[in-house]
Design goal:
The complex is a heterodimer of chains A (228) and B (322). Chain A has ten helices and no strands. The N and C termini of chain A lie far apart (57 Å). Chain B has 322 residues and is an alpha/beta fold. Classes of the chains: A mainly alpha (228), B alpha/beta (322). Chains A and B meet through α3, α5 and α9 of A and α1, β7 and α10 of B.
Chain lengths: 228, 322
């Protein structure tokens, strides 16, 4: 039987869609942890990155520190977080996976936000100050809007990586779409495995498209073609 | 005043330092010739001599401790006899191992009679509690693949369904039959439990126990910790897992005989089986293995966190094989 027909066979069984370990529940779990991880990473990375960009200092050190998240494999973080999570009563699944995903999502958001602010032409911020703006006004009214396109690109990169990497949660009992891949692999069920792989790919592409639309709406000035 | 180069150096070293602090040194049980060569005690392995034209041997080890230890025992014995031998990791389930045999990546592996038989016959339930009978049926399937199984050892490693002492006392559980009244219990184990004749399907057909509603698939290494933390109620472990004893788990008795003869035995290619003297060495190893002995070797791996090569070496020495 071809891979395609095994996939279709798996997807067309109603029982595979519903219930605690069904496709619908697992898509929901997958989206939930991806949104949570990306939102947490934004909350953790954007304020310090904006501030360090504003004062134009410490960026190299901070970027290096944040990049540890990219250097340590997510799988290792999941594995390390599991015993800690079990010991302190956070349980299997969600929390150990979330820790790894946040670590993965931090670097692109942090570096892009920092670069977005620190890369603004001095002439622009000097002009703002020359108009009488105070430091926080320069940050909120000049630097933040100028950094927004890069910041959003960082969030978009992180979100897509998070959606793809959330599959690792299957190793510690998290019921996202990775569970189909892990179970399909162990049970030698190609249809199940492909279901997980294809749905994760669809979800990642959907995330990419959603952010594309979001970026056009939030930063309409970047849509203009040609010289301004 | 920090100079720029110093700052950059700090920036580059900081992540390295954090990584170094985070990862304890965890030596791979890499094949070290010194350990194998040290045991010149005059046992069967070191006294044997490999034929000059003997092919290179690659042993397939699966992703759990016992498989690593058994592979290392085979390796050190054959190495002492002068064979060109190495170990190849083949992941966590039998399809990969069979593919590795098929592709010539491995030509010897420690296996389990009943589980391998059921893997080859699509879980048809042919395995029985008789080791020799099960091994003979296994040989029939293996011959189609150009493989053979040698005499099964006494050491049996079946699936073991365990609960904590607390749960056992509270719900009055002693056997698998007792699970019938508690379909709400959460069973945790490797994902293949769902399709394994000696796990969920067996519980259903032999005991009428359906735990599929709460089944939680987990990596093998995460199962016992999840049971300790109360995240799962029933854990699927191996019967030679020392934590059943050390953590005071209650092993649910297989009162209706669902489990079959999962005796440890070597599976190898017919080419290797024809090498003069090789099968005798593997048989000698099988004779040295018992269920309680294997449980103790696993305890040293799981609880004492010893390396597989050290454990294997001391087993061979104690058994008078090196």
């Amino acid at each position: 039987m071809s891979a395609w027909s095994e996939l279709v066979d798996y997807l067309t069984v109603a029982d595979h869609w519903w219930g605690r370990r069904g496709i619908a529940t697992r898509i929901g779990d997958h989206v939930q942890i991806s949104v949570a991880a990306t939102a947490a990473a934004v909350a953790l990375a954007v304020p310090p990155a904006l501030w360090l960009g504003h004062i134009r200092r410490g960026g190299a050190v901070a970027t290096a520190a944040v990049n540890v998240g990219r250097a340590v494999p997510s799988f290792a973080i999941v594995a390390l977080a599991l015993p800690i999570s079990l010991r302190y009563g956070f349980g299997l699944g969600f929390w150990p996976t979330l820790v790894a995903l946040v670590a993965l999502a931090l670097p692109p958001i942090f570096t892009n936000t920092y670069a977005g602010v620190a890369g603004i032409d001095r002439a622009v911020t000097d002009a703002a100050r020359g108009m009488g703006m105070r430091g926080h006004e320069v940050l909120w009214r000049v630097e933040a809007p100028n950094a927004l396109p890069l910041l959003l690109t960082g969030v978009r990169t992180s979100a897509v990586q998070v959606v793809a990497t959330a599959t690792l949660g299957a190793f510690v009992g998290f019921g996202g779409l990775g569970a189909f891949i892990n179970e399909g692999f162990r049970q030698q069920d190609d249809g199940k495995q492909l279901t997980g792989a294809v749905l994760v790919a669809v979800l990642a592409i959907a995330t990419e498209l959603l952010f594309g639309v979001g970026q056009r709406l939030l930063t309409p000035w970047t849509n203009r073609k040609g010289p301004r | 005043m920090t100079t720029r180069p110093a700052r950059w150096l700090l920036a580059m070293l900081l992540p390295l330092a954090i990584i170094a602090a985070g990862c304890g040194s965890d030596d791979d049980d890499s094949a070290s010739d010194t350990t194998a060569a040290s045991g010149e005690g005059g046992g069967a392995c070191s006294e044997a001599t490999a034929p000059d034209d003997a092919p290179a041997i690659t042993i397939g080890a699966q992703d759990f401790g016992e498989s690593a230890i058994l592979a290392e025992i085979y390796r050190q014995c054959l190495d002492a006899a002068g064979y060109d031998v190495s170990i190849q990791e083949v992941g966590g389930f039998r399809d990969l191992e069979l593919a590795a045999f098929d592709g010539g990546d491995i030509n010897l592996a420690p296996e389990y009679a009943a589980s391998m038989l059921e893997a080859l016959n699509d879980q048809a339930g042919e395995a029985t509690a008789d080791a020799q009978e099960t091994a003979d049926k296994l040989k029939g399937y293996l011959s189609d693949l150009g493989l053979v199984a040698l005499t099964p050892s006494e050491a049996v490693d079946t699936n073991a369904l365990v609960v904590t002492k607390e749960t056992a006392d509270k719900l009055d559980l002693t056997s698998l039959s007792d699970l019938a009244d508690h379909p709400e219990l959460v069973l945790g184990g490797p994902a293949d439990c769902e399709t394994n004749a000696f796990c969920l399907p067996g519980l259903k057909s032999v005991y009428g126990v359906d735990l599929s509603a709460g089944f939680t698939p987990l990596e093998p290494a995460a199962v016992a910790p999840a049971l300790d933390a109360g995240e799962i109620d029933v854990a699927l472990l191996f019967s030679t897992d020392s934590r059943i004893v050390t953590n005071d788990y209650v092993l649910l008795e297989d009162d209706k005989g669902m489990l079959a003869a999962d005796n440890v035995l070597p599976v190898l290619t017919t080419e290797l089986a024809d090498v003069e003297g090789l099968s005798d060495l593997l048989d000698a190893i099988s004779e040295s293995l018992t269920t309680s002995g294997l449980t103790e070797l696993n305890r040293r791996f799981d609880v004492d966190v010893e390396d597989a090569d050290k454990i294997a070496e001391s087993h061979l020495t104690d058994a008078g094989l090196l």
